[in-house]
């Protein structure tokens, strides 16, 4: 029986996109532009764009690329947007509230919600800042957990239980974005802090999910014990 692949794309610069046909493609934030290029070659691939609601509304680089990509399905996390203001009837829509997103993620980790809370402790560098951040998150139940790239991987794992998931352009360390590699123009603090959380959570991912992942990123493969795409 031939393997079925699903492709998940992120915005890491100079990442390799495998030149194979997949059944479904998912993009995280501005990587929707990359997915749109992929669909020009494989137009029958079903395309879902996943984006943080705040990123979509406030980051023009993300906003423009997601709209122009014309996805079959748009998924926002951390809240709902006025969807029909930006997309026509050819695009469907799903959303996760912050609460729903958090508990969706918890299903994939060995100790569920506890893994996410402990991983969030990595978000801040200084001890006092760690405790303030953690207390605020617990009080409001307002943790993001994974980055949108990692969240896209989890969503693909859930929706395609019989498929292997190829990851391209999603890393777990600082590196900027394919559309802007000039660090002077980037606010990398949040990017770096969320990558710290991802590094913790990738080690907590249940084996049943990790064994279905393949990555084109050498560091992610080595650090997370994930198969490297060849």
Care to give the gist of this entry?
With 230 residues, this protein is α/β, with parallel strands linked by helices. Helices cover 41% and strands 16% of the residues. Strand 2 (24-28), helix 1 and strand 3 form a beta-alpha-beta unit.
Q: H/E element string?
A: EEHEHHEEHHHHEHHEHE
How many structural domains? 1
How far apart the termini lie comes to 20 Å
The secondary-structure class comes to alpha/beta
Discrete helix count:
10
Q: Uncertain runs with pLDDT below 50, 5 residues or more? A: 183-191
- Shape descriptor reads globular
Question: Which strands sit side by side, in order, in the main sheet?
Answer: 5-4-3-2-1-6-7-8
Structure characterization notes:
The protein has 230 residues and is of the alpha/beta class. The protein has one domain. It has helices spanning 32-41, 53-58, 60-69, 98-106, 113-120, 127-140, 148-159, 188-202, 207-210, 218-224; strands at residues 5-9, 24-28, 46-52, 73-77, 92-96, 164-168, 213-215, 227-228. An 8-stranded parallel beta sheet has the order 5-4-3-2-1-6-7-8, sandwiched between helices. Helix 10 (218-224) links the parallel strand 7 (213-215) and strand 8 (227-228). Helix 1 runs parallel beside helix 3, helix 4 packs across helix 5 and helix 5 packs across helix 8. It is globular. The model is unreliable at 183-191 (pLDDT under 50).
């Amino acid at each position: 029986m031939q393997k079925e692949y699903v492709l998940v794309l992120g915005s890491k610069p100079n990442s390799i996109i495998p030149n194979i046909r997949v059944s479904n493609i998912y993009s995280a934030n501005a990587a929707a532009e990359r997915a749109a290029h992929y669909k020009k070659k494989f137009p029958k691939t079903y395309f879902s764009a996943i984006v943080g609601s705040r990123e979509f509304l406030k980051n023009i680089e993300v906003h423009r690329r997601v709209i122009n990509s014309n996805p079959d399905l748009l998924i926002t996390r951390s809240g709902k947007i006025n969807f029909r203001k930006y997309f026509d009837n050819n695009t469907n829509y799903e959303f996760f509230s912050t609460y729903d997103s958090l508990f969706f993620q918890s299903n994939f980790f060995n100790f569920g919600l506890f893994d996410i809370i402990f991983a969030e402790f990595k978000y801040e560098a200084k001890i006092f800042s760690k405790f303030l951040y953690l207390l605020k998150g617990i009080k409001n139940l307002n943790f993001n957990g994974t980055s949108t790239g990692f969240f896209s991987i989890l969503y693909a794992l859930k929706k395609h239980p019989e498929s292997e998931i190829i990851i391209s352009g999603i890393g777990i360390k600082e590196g900027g974005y394919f559309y802007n590699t000039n660090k002077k123009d980037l606010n990398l603090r949040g990017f770096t802090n969320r990558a710290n959380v991802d590094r913790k959570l990738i080690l907590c991912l249940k084996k049943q999910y990790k064994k279905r992942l393949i990555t084109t990123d050498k560091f992610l493969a080595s650090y997370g014990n994930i198969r490297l795409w060849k």
